[in-house]
Every structure is written in structure tokens, then in C-alpha cells.
Amino acid sequence: MTGVLEGFALILGVIGIGYLAGRLGVVRGDQRLTLNRVAFFVATPALMFTVLHRSDISVLRSPVILVTTIAALVVAAAFIVISRVWFPRDLATTTLAATGSGYVNSNNLGLPVAVYILGDAAYVAPLIIVQLALYAPVILSILDSTRAGRARGSGVRGVLLAVGRAFTNPIIIACLAGVLCALFAVPVPKLVLAPLEMIGGAAIPMVLLSFGISLHGQRALQPGTGVRLVLVSTALKVLAMPLIAWGLGVAIGLPPHQLFVATVIAALPTAQNVYNYAATYGKAETIVRDIVFVTTFASLPVIALIAWLLGGG
Questions:
Q1: Cβ contacts of 122 within 8 Å, gap of 6 or more
Q2: CA 290 to CA 91: how far, in whole Å?
Q3: Which fold has domain 2-310?
Q4: Distance (Å, whole) CA 293 – CA 19
């Protein structure tokens, strides 16, 4: 558990520095959105390309990834149904909160969890590919379709317009380019790759700093900020998703260690990428910030419990 605690401490440390920057007036008001915009339009595309271009796409056939992907889709669908019945919101808010239920922190926390609890960093690599190459384009396409001032269409024309706009998104372009390079073994010159790796390395710190700055002046779970959405999304993420992953794993006969891996991965907290999407598009920012904040703390005892119950398999 030492590595996991170090991973949590690293994330919370950078968030804390961001909070101090806001509190001390180094960054004021919406100035923090500059960090989100640079992360979204520059650093995150660079990070996604550098991760995906050297990935082994064949790992997507892993039964562990099948289980965690189905679990993520189930909890996202469950959130949408619950939201529609008890607290309906606009499409962007519903999409982001549902994403918070199943989009896991596979990098900052996934890597130390994989190394120190699961025993191999390779366990999270397929998940990173799935989230970057499959989840992100869908989420961003939906968010892009809700932007004010966009040309509207109906029927097939509306769908084609939404798809066309999505493929102008730098993150989607970077994901597509990275996957194509991996599929066709396209070599990337070092002179091109080196600056992309340097810029991509700044993506996560910038998002974490902006996240910390956003905490100044407003505590988490304040009345009137969508607390019910946050609590439902959090419960689905840290409780329902690992339970579903465990049940699916048992149903398809996963070996004990793979069952353990799938359950732990499903228990990881919501990724900061979701907050970056919310802040960049100006949709449900406080709700997503609170989901990320609460799941980050709530997931630690859940992961520890899973390790205790299943880790000996």
C-alpha cells in the first residue's frame, strides 16, 4: 500500500499547491481556466499521442479490459437512468456526471496501484488505451454538440455536423493519429517525439493545479451545487463499479488474480481529465470537481479492502 499512498500524496500535494496559489492570489478568478485551455488544446493532445503511438492495440482483447469496460458502461447507464428519474439535467451535465461514474484515474493512481498492488504496470496500459481512444472521443463529441453558437442540424445532417466538429477537436485528432501509428507501426522521429513528450508531461500537473485553484473560495458539496448528482456518481464509481466488475469476473470465470486486478482497477477514482473537459467546455464544472475530489478520498479504503479480500488469490 506504500506506493498507493505515495500516488495519492502526489496528487493531493499538487492540488494543495494549486489551492495555495489561489488563496495567495497568485492566480485570481477565471485566470485558472488558462491552465485548462493549455492542457486541453496543447498538452493533453501531446500526451495522448505519445501514449498511444507506442501502444500494443492487441491488449484490448484482455478479459480484464472487457470486464472493466462493461462495468464502466453499466454504471454510466445507471447514472443516466437515475438522473432522468430523480434529478434531470441538461445533456452536458448528465454526460459529464455519468462519465465521472466510470472514467477511472488510470495514470496518476492507476500506475502506482498496478505496480505496488497488482504487481505489473502493464495491467493499466490497456485501460489507458480504451479511455483515450474510445471514451474520450465520444464524450468530447457530445460536449461539442452542446456548445452555444454551434450550427444546429436535425436528423442525419445533425449527426454528420456533430461528427465533423468532433474531428476538429485536438484530443480526438491526437488519439486517432496515435492509434494509426500504433496499428501500422509508423516510426515517429525523435525530433518530433521529444518536444511532444515534454509538453505532454505538463498536462496532468496543469489540470491538478487548476483543480486546486478551483477549491479556493468554495468548499466541496455545498448546497445548491448538485450534491445529489455528486453523491450518486461517487457511489456508482467507488462502490457499484468494483462490485459489478467482480460479479462479471466471477460470471465469466476469470482466474483469481485477474479477478483481483479487474476489481481493483474498477475501484480507482474518477480521472482529472473529466474535470478538464468540464472546465474547458464550461459545463458542470463544480459538480465534476466535487466528484473527482470525493472519489479520490473515498477510493483509498475501498482499494485497501479489495486488496485484503482478494489479494491473496
A1: 59, 114
A2: 19
A3: Na+/H+ antiporter like fold (1.20.1530)
A4: 13
